Amino acid sequence: MKNKMELKFAATLENESLARSSVSIFIAPLNPTLEEIGEIKTIVSEAVSNAIIHGYNFDDEKYVTLKCELNGNLLSIVVIDYGKGIKDVEEAKTPHYSTRPDLERAGMGMTIMETLSDYFEVVSVYGMGSKIIIKKELQHVDSYEGETI
Ligand SMILES: Nc1ncnc2c1ncn2[C@@H]1O[C@H](COP(=O)(O)OP(=O)(O)OP(=O)(O)O)[C@@H](O)[C@H]1O
Ligand SMILES: [Mg+2]
User: Fold this and answer.
1) Is 96 contained in some domain?
2) Residue 20 among the catalytic residues
């Protein structure tokens, strides 16, 4: 299965569910398991909320871009913001590190994304923006295979 999609939306947390749902519909033809759908939705939520909160500081005049690609069972997700950027990516990836504890952020988004992905990369230029690249291999199950009715 080969497919591509791109979605550009305003940087408001209301669009977190739009992004999450779009990706789960995009991968539906692969018949992903409920666990896979849950993991992918979590990854997308974390990346998109980071772009909105940290990248753009909730400025809904700005846009977040979400790109998805399917190559066989390999799902690639890219989330881009042209916001604040990250000064020290390694520090940002450290569990419990957050620059917004005032918003009761746990500092676990990066760690969660890394744990749930097969490949996780953060490309960021301070003052220019950030790009999160995630790859995840899905187990393909043909619907009703082997099932007797
Ligand atoms: N897109 C981004 N632009 C600018 N800074 C970012 C971006 N994504 C992450 N960061 C920085 O990395 C830190 C860690 O991100 P992470 O997602 O792990 O934690 P958090 O968002 O602070 O808390 P949580 O995700 O648990 O609610 C953030 O506090 C922020 O300083
Ligand atoms: Mg976060």
Assistant:
1) yes
2) no
pLDDT band for position 145 (50/70/90)? low
Tell me the average pLDDT of the chain. Answer: 94
The model carries a pTM of 0.94
Structural domain includes residue 37: yes
- The CATH number of the domain where 109 resides is what? 3.30.565.10
pLDDT given for residue 27 in this prediction: 97
The residue segments making up the domain with residue 128 are 2-137
Q: Which atom of ligand 1 is nearest to the CA of 55?
A: 3
**Residue 27 three-state SS:** helix
Question: Residue for token digits 């500092």?
Answer: 107
CA dihedral 69, 72, 74, 75 (to 10 degrees): 30
Cα 53 to ligand 2 centroid, rounded to whole Å: 8
Is 130 within the bounds of a domain?
yes
